[in-house]
Amino acid sequence: MKPSRNLLLSLPKTDLHVHLDGSLRLSTLIELAQKQGLELPSYTPEGLEELVFKPTYASLGEYLQGFAYTCGVLQDKESLARVAYELAWDNILEGVRYIEVRFAPHLHMRPGFGCQDVLDAVNEGLSRAQKEYAASPAVQENGEPEFRYGMIVCALRKFGSEFSPWYSNLFEALSESPLPTIYGAASLELARGAVRARDERGIPVVGFDLAGEEKGFPAEDHMAAFQFAKEHFLNRTVHAGEAYGPESIFQAITAAHADRIGHGYHLFSDELITSPEVKNKKGYCDALVQYVADRRITIEVCITSNLQTNPQIGSVKNHAFKQMLNQRLSATLCTDNRLMSRTSVTNEIHLAVNAFDMNEALVRNTIIYGFKRSFFPGTYLEKRAYVRGIIDYYDRVVSEHNAKDESA
Length: 408
What we know:
8 strands, single chain, globular, alpha/beta, TIM Barrel, 18 helices
């Protein structure tokens, strides 16, 4: 039996792939822009939805244009903390009990406001929401699971000096260096800053990510950063297979030591393999899928986002998540960007349930994968206890829901 949307809404869920700067409330974006004197194409939610945050986009490039506005208002402590706080509560209110918020600190840095300041601000907002919910009757009296979170810092595969003052200074300092060297230097500096924030300031930075345009900007340029992260026990996830082929996923796993893959949509797309060294493209894909399956490398699936940035997919039923289910891969459903994709975790799961006839067992596995494969900011024993509590609560919610249906 397929679970209803009401049941999905009440279940404890995760979002392991959600971008801070892609998940603002429209009202907050408008308010911050007006307060800061930043120009927007429209100052009404309806206008912005028509002009910027559309139901469909022509390409990933068009999809990414909206970030110029959202990042533009996130250049100070108060704005970052507020948006993080609101994102946490938006998740809490739809039953999400664990999130890993990712963002690129370099996009928010300026003189006098460095990496540690950005991380502090985001952590302040998330922590405030966590404490408020922990003190609520839902947790204190009803026994609902606590809301927990981690933070993932994003390096960019490609950037320009105009992206932020920090990037501008980097280009000036390395003006004689080739672009791959500049990209690699930025990611290594970010990895070092993430580890310092975790180890010296106790900020729950749980992962290191690589995002941005895949084609022509390989993960190999960032090998030093990912090696540093690995040597300092910082988890790794990489945007790969979002708009490029299986070779990008292979490189994320091998060169970047990825523990998880962001999107992974083109895992099965052997027709996109470009290397002349690969003679048997289907065999390459089959071996890659087997490798991902054997090692339980979890794929952070973002259905709505993929449909928007890859219009050729056509419909939800054509999404590669169907093949992931058939291959019993470790995959969990995420939002990517709640604003850009105008979605929620509940919506993403509901789309999959209807498109792929997911029964309660399949839904349970998919949701619990999110908790089990999270980069939980605590010890292994603490994570086990938290996940065990989540599973018990999940089963209780389903049991109570089914009992109501039977008595109706």
